Amino acid sequence: MTVLTSVPQQRLLVTEIPGPKSKAEIQRRSEEVSGGLGIAFPAVIVSTGGAILVDLDGNQIIDMAAGIGVNNVGNSAQRVVDRVIEQVQAFSHTCFTVAPYQGYIDVCAKLNAHTPGTHKKKSVLVNSGAEAVENAVKIARNATKRQAIVVFEHAYHGRTNLTMALTAKNMPYKEGFGPFANEIYRMPMPYELRWLGDKATITADALEEVAHKIEKEIGAHNVAAILIEPIQGEGGFIVPPKGFLPGLSKYCAENGIIFIADEVQTGFARTGNMFAVEAENVVPDMIITAKGIAGGLPLAAVTGRAEIMDAVHVSGLGGTYGGNPVACAASLGVFETIEEDGLVERAREVGKILGHALCEMASKYPIIAEVRGRGAMMAIELVKPGSLEPNTEAMTKVINYCAKKGVLLLSAGTYSNVIRFLPPIVISDELLLDAMSVLDEAFASL
To answer: pLDDT (tens digit, 9 = 90+) per residue, 69-121?
Structure first.
């Protein structure tokens, strides 16, 4: 795939990673930046383009993370950059709820048109995925006059107080930060690799268990919303078994519950559909988007059925920076790039290349228990051979080996044993295969 960038699309090592300049900056970081922030890659970036990151020492690194699934259209994507420059020269802020502007309305119109379903939709723009989740919950409670929110094991929905309560994993996301919001109820997630029941009936059994727990522990008439990631992100790229999402959606419709899809990490062509729920023709009542929406600028959204979105009283929604005009301009550049460059189809191609390479490795290395995901959102789960015991040590060694060779990978998973692959969708076949070659070397070195 051709990428409009001046950054050469090839891996290049000029120094060891981290090089001397990066080491100096990382030391300065330790003196100036809160120790509560971790870093996944030991190099300081100065420029980017396409699927390549360039560090202070001139090393060119293959980006298999896209800023945690943000730069779907590529790092420093040209249409995004052009629109941002044009907008920031015109004006950078008014606050939409003070003096509105076209960009906000244009992005809402795009979201309303591109999200699943032909029904009338409306949107609200905010700054981050967690803020969008907070607003979705707020809107659902207001519209239904109910309080309970149902979420799932292995879920990740953010780091604010409410979204920490919605998130499943304790460390590092929740440890020491309580007490958390109440009226949050967690349901079992059909995680096929680790499902203890009959895998032949996993979908029906999981849906039955969810319905039973809701009825006995909450009462369906008290549930405002069921909130789920169509593919769980930080939880380890857990793909629900076929039929589970449609079954949840049907249950919600039958019980007056709002079905909310958290597409923060799965949206914007990432999985080979514009939105992941489309793989099973699921139409959520509300959909949450962020990450890939604006090419790296802070923007997120809640899009939903018009009658739900309009249930909130005037000025019940809003915020100073939500739907910032520069971020909105970037988002319009993202929509344009996805449409003009065929990135939905490209994500499917990326998935085929990744899937083939990862499955070949799984056949050679018994520590790879499973290859899973969809499109340009793939993962491998590592275990100790002959068991399902999580192999965090091997995961760490593989990621560190690849980092030293100039390939940026991220970890994930409730058990901290998953390697995830989230490259910019515009990545070339050559870069993908190079990254997979380095990954193969890493496993061979164990």
So the answer is: 999 999 999 999 999 999 999 999 999 999 999 999 999 999 999 999 999 99
Distance CA 148, CA 186 (A): 11
Q: Which of 431, 428, 409, 412 is nearest to 66 (CA)?
A: 409
Strand ranges, E, within 290-431 = 300-305, 368-374, 377-382, 407-408, 410-412, 418-421
User: Residue written as tokens 């723009």?
Assistant: 125
Q: Among all chains, which residue has been given the structure tokens 């380890």?
A: 236
What amino acid is encoded at 444 in this protein? A
Helix (H, G, I), strand (E, B) or coil at 328: helix
The region, left, alpha or beta by phi > 0 then psi within -120 to 50, assigned to residue 243 is left
Q: Give the model confidence (pLDDT) of 246-294 as tens digits.
A: 999 999 999 999 999 999 999 999 999 999 999 999 999 999 999 999 9
Task: Write down all domains in the chain, each with its CATH number in brackets.
Answer: 20-63+342-444 (3.90.1150.10), 79-340 (3.40.640.10)
Please classify residue 81 by burial: count the beta carbons closer than 10 Å to its beta carbon, then call 0-12 exposed, 13-18 middle and 19+ buried: middle
